[in-house]
Amino acid sequence: MSETLKVTLERPDGAVAILRTDGYINNTGGEEIARQAYSLLGEGTVRLLLDLERTKIVNSIGISILIEVLEKVLDQGGRLAFCHLTPTIEKTFQIMGLAQYARIFPSPEPALAWLRGEAE
Fold it and tell me: Which CATH class is domain 6-115?
């Protein structure tokens, strides 16, 4: 398994941004997600979707960094959603409390609708 995480940014519109991950979310992977998320927050984009379709493992340091990102998004009045989680990652996010403050969706379409305020 590769230790490097690739993060691809997509901007479907001015309201939301999608960060698609490919690889292992550990300390360096989490820091890359945080770097891109904080850059988006700095530009005023406060509605973020993390698509983890190509991520199979998130370690404890990666989760702690994702929690920090979530806190910053919420502090700015934004929303954070996740999609394409493996059952193990989804269960871990439930246990760690991420799912309490961010939403988890099976695919990007309903997540984007929720982020835009079109659906609850």
Answer: alpha beta
